[in-house]
Specification:
Distance between the termini: 14 Å
Helix content: 10-25%
CATH class: Mainly Beta
Largest sheet: 6 strands, antiparallel
Strand order of the largest sheet: 1-2-3-9-8-5
CATH superfamily: RNA polymerase II/Efflux pump adaptor protein, barrel-sandwich hybrid domain
Structural class: alpha+beta
Strand content: 25-35%
CATH architecture: Beta Barrel
CATH topology: OB fold (Dihydrolipoamide Acetyltransferase, E2P)
Shape: globular
Radius of gyration: 13 Å
Number of domains: 1
């Protein structure tokens, strides 16, 4: 399982990369592997404000339908529209081109409740 060291991770298997006050959010390699072939993604609407842990969408695979949660609070500033045409990008590139959405107005203090790579690796090994 691929696991970038510079990201923060949630117990719900999302990752966060904070750059300034903009957080990019995606699902982990572990999550996409557990889901199997992803066939549809419902992303949040740009401009919507969410609290940390809120349900923001749905990921549908050949195996299951799973809720998508945001690991940080903020306002959705961008969604990955490439996933509309090809949701399998999430299976191939979950940490790069397969990002889900970006949130603005995110403070670094929100990362304190998330896991670093070592803690997330331990969580997924159990």
């Amino acid at each position: 399982m691929s696991l970038p060291q510079d990201l923060h991770y949630s117990n719900d298997h999302e990752w966060v990369k904070l750059e300034g006050d903009v957080a990019t959010v995606g699902i982990t390699d572990y999550a996409q592997n557990s889901l199997g072939d992803i066939v549809f993604v419902e992303l949040p609407k740009v401009g919507t404000v969410f609290g940390q842990g809120d349900n923001v969408g749905v990921i549908e695979s050949v195996k299951a339908v799973s809720d998508l949660f945001t690991p940080v609070a903020g306002r959705v500033s961008e969604v990955n529209t490439a996933l509309d045409a090809d949701s399998s990008i999430l299976n191939r590139e979950p940490y790069t081109d397969g990002w889900l959405f970006k949130m603005k107005d995110v403070g670094e203090e929100q990362l304190e409740s998330l896991l670093d790579a070592a803690a997330y690796a331990k969580l997924t090994a159990e």
